[in-house]
């Protein structure tokens, strides 16, 4: 059997103005009577376009903000902990493994309340997937050169519901060292021998179970950042589940889409529906939308 060189595919020229639109609908199976109830025509007007722009501005990923503290040997008060500007090499390696370092002045993702004007630091670890965004409020990354800076730092860190505490103190970390009404979950890390780390988890009684780490776990340093990050995210999810009538981002987005459809639904017979789908009329944008919307159909 002989291999034959294949010709480079040539893009197919559309047979009409809306050829690709009709082809997509046909492939999706949306042009049949059975799908009529799940496929609607909307009235094209300025209000619809404004609501669609508002939909685009809404968050489309789950967001979490998590505080990170460094406690050095002998530190047992709020001031000494909050004024730390750095930590041990093991701590710095751990923080670097939580996510990638982003510049806050030009970061386009979730900010978690941090500012672009450098008042809350220059950089911070950030982690994201297609469905999740996590930003870490790292105490050693935030300025503490004045009373105002310390107050602002405590406000950001204290308002986070999940705290990660890296403690190199010989005594166990006490919950009340950083006074806050939040901090419902504390994940405390204690370095032990042979590059291993002991995990202590403190949570309020009403907080549901979460993992993968548990109180008393011993973790290898190579997987520590990943495991702690996953545990912190799940802890944040567990806390959000306690909020009455809480909706996930996709539920809120779906509800808003349904509202748009209900407000702008254009009642049609199946014949008119099919005609408008297969041969739609161009939408002539309103004068107020000039320069913003082009060739909207």
UniProtKB/TrEMBL annotation:
* Keywords, in A-Z order: GTPase activation
Highest taxon of the source?
A: Eukaryota
Q: Name one GO biological process term.
A: regulation of small GTPase mediated signal transduction
Does the keyword field hold RNA-binding? Answer: no
Which InterPro entries does the UniProt entry name for this protein? Rap/Ran-GAP_sf, Rap/Ran_GAP_dom, Tuberin/Ral-act_asu
**Sequence ranges assigned to domain Rap-GAP in this UniProt record:** 52-260
- Report the GO molecular function annotations: GTPase activator activity
Entries under Pfam families matching the protein: Rap_GAP
Q: Where does the record place a coiled coil?
A: none
Key word rRNA-binding present in the record? no
Name the chain's protein.
Answer: Ral GTPase activating protein catalytic subunit alpha 1
Q: Which organism is it from?
A: Rousettus aegyptiacus (Egyptian fruit bat)
């Amino acid at each position: 059997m002989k291999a034959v060189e294949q010709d480079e595919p040539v893009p197919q020229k559309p047979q009409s103005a809306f050829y690709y639109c009709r082809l997509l609908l046909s492939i999706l199976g949306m042009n049949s009577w059975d799908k009529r109830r799940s496929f609607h025509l909307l009235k094209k007007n300025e209000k619809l376009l404004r609501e669609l722009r508002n939909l685009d501005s809404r968050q489309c990923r789950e967001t979490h903000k998590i505080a990170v503290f460094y406690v050095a040997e002998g530190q047992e008060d709020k001031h000494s902990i909050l004024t730390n500007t750095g930590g041990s090499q093991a701590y710095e390696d751990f923080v670097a493994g939580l996510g990638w370092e982003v510049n806050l002045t030009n970061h386009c993702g979730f900010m978690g309340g941090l500012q672009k004007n450098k008042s809350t630091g220059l950089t911070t670890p950030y982690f994201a997937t297609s469905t999740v965004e996590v930003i870490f409020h790292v105490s050693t990354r935030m300025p503490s050169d004045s009373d105002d800076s310390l107050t602002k730092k405590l406000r950001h860190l204290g308002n986070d519901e999940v705290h990660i505490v890296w403690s190199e103190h010989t005594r166990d970390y006490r919950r009340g060292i950083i006074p806050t009404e939040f901090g419902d979950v504390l994940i405390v890390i204690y370095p032990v021998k042979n590059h291993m780390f002991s995990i202590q988890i403190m949570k309020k009684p009403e907080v549901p179970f979460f993992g993968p780490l548990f109180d008393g776990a011993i973790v290898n340093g190579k997987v520590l950042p990943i495991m702690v990050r996953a545990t912190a995210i799940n802890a944040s999810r567990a806390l959000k589940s306690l909020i009455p009538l809480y909706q996930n981002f996709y539920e809120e987005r779906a509800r808003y889409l349904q509202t748009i459809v209900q407000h702008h639904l254009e009642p049609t017979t199946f014949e008119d529906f099919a005609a408008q789908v297969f041969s739609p009329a161009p939408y002539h944008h309103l004068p107020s939308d000039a320069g913003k919307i082009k060739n909207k159909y």
